[in-house]
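Problem: given the chain below (647 residues), write out its structure.
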Amino acid sequence: MSSLLLKNSTALIALCLSFPALAQEPAEADAQSGIIVTATRAPTPLEQIPASITVLDKAAIDRAQDIGVTELLLRTPGISISRNGGYGTATSLRIRGAETDQTVVVIDGVKLNDPSSTGGGYNFANLLIGDAERIELLRGPQSTLWGSQAIGGVVNIVTAQPDAPLEGSFDIEGGSRDTVSARAALGGVSGPLSWRIGGQSFTTGGISAIAPAFGGGEADGYTNRNVVGRAELALSANASIDLRGYYSTGRVEIDGFSGDAPDYSHNREFVGYAGLNFALLGGRLRNRIAYNYTDTDRDSYSPELEQPLSFEAAGKNRRFEYQGIFELTDRISATFGAENERSRFKSRSPSGSLADPLPDFVTGNAEITSLYGQVTVRPLDGLTLNGGVRYDDHNRYGGRTLFSAGGIWELPSGTTLRASYGEGFKAPSLYQLFSEYGNVNLDPERAHGWEAGVQQAFFGQAVTIGATYFERTTTGQIIYNSCSTDSTDPLCVMPGTDTPRWGYYLNVARAEAHGIEADAAFKLGGLTLNGNYSWTVAEDRSAGAATEGNWLPRRPRHMANGSISYDFDFGLTLGSAVRWSGKSYDNAANTTRLDDYTLVDLRAEYALSDSLRLFARAENVFDESYMTAYRYGTLGRSIYAGIRGRF
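Solution.
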């Protein structure tokens, strides 16, 4: 009884902090000045960005102690996730109720996506914090600058850059379920050369991917190894060469449809970047010419079958780009560029019998060429306006033109007003077009959305409150349509054959989302309070469909986060965080409900010196049982401890 009272009291405190909250950015961003954001594809002061953005710097990342990027972002407004088990299993992150493949993920300027995945998006399962120095979350349609997929928003991850002759960092921690994480990085600046390389190893015994209530019993483990590096060589005062790379390999054990199984999957990701930067006209015109390459390979195995290889897929992207930033005056600037992206994929699903030969790969490719431009004007002190346009020429769908506009006004009273409008265009993925479930007659998804918000600061930046209202409409949304064994639908047969299939993709859906994101922050001496609340209505608006008016799957309408921490003078920091998620539904028919839940975490950190800290945390302290995807397990109470060094 006492534990239940403590749990409910802690949750009530968090919600009290959250509901009156009205700020767009967390305290980590608001309490600082001079923050430069790169998620807009150009270095931009935070106070000049009309769209909703959350910036988490290295101090905030360290303070949270989270292992994965999804866990960190889940504490920010408008974010929900679903995961098919523990660490490493398929993870979907949704911004403002948009589909997970409508989110663009960027690492050091390189856009990540897997052309062989179902929606052509990015699986967040293997994205650990690693050597991230800053994470920026840009909400709302951002396709003008980032192109296809940026309907929900952009997650921009910036790794650390050295600024000393030699510097480094390390984190080592361990805890529940034989979990061990070790990360280290080293870099420096020597004359015209700056460089940094970092690596991480993570392993855990895990939990059963299938929840115990549905027959899951054995633990499904996960390992991940990744390395990231970057180097920049100054050729002159106005020119430099930039090289970046990222590689990750993961192995996760998974369960079958009927429960425990020895099945497992491998995932390998490689990202490469090479760029030439040069400035002209006395530095007023900054130019970047670059080549990006991403390569993702995925394999699944069922060791109990005669033919253990059950799935094999590979997706590759090659992108050439030019970007320019021209400072016309000290109040007018333009960002413009051109891109050419070529994607291809292959996949196959072999039979479990050695009597059946390996099937041929299904393959596909696409090419898109784009031009974009955005002008930013600061007509008055504190007022920033921008407008942009993008033209995409897809080799299958022809040309599309997108527009965006926005403004932000900082008043002397401490009030900030924001408003923005954006459009999105997402071509069908290669998997949706050419796989065994593909439909070559699919049309692109299109979206448009707007938002308006206000933020108020008191006593400098000691107190901030604010709120944002948003709306987004998506038409032609692509869904998977199942086929029955006796279906007469001609699309329920593999094209060009008499072979029936389980289903196919088609455009039928219209989705609408609207809501409010609010947060507040308070800081007094060593005491820091943060809270946010999100109300997100994401519904199926397909006229005449049986699901019209239903909630989109796995999207809670109500979510809230709250945290409190105190820094003692002798180097100790204690904190607690609470997350509450309202109910959602697992299926489009809204017949399978996922109940609401409350998670409470505790954190502690002690500074042994300026460069060395001990830390510990307890997650899901009250061992709450919950699901973000029906039948799949979630982590119970977990305890971790470690040491962190920065030198």
